[in-house]
Amino acid sequence: MILLVGQSGPGWIGTAAVLGLLLAMIFATYLFFLAAPVLERLLGRTGTVVITRLLGMLLAALSVQFVIDGVRGTGLIG
Questions:
Q1: Count: domains in the chain
Q2: Which of the chain's termini has less CB crowding within 10 Å, N or C?
């Protein structure tokens, strides 16, 4: 949030836009939490396990990318 507001430029319009997007994301997350029991019933046990594993792989890939970006930032690798 702080980084986005800092990059939004001077004035209140950029800050208001970032705040509006933050509130929209909070609302979307709330809706997903409300829909979770229905989605769990629709997916079933196997679907839930598959989604969990796919999201775990995505999280691991993002973690590796962040580490690589950090090491590149130090100048140790090109």
A1: 1
A2: C
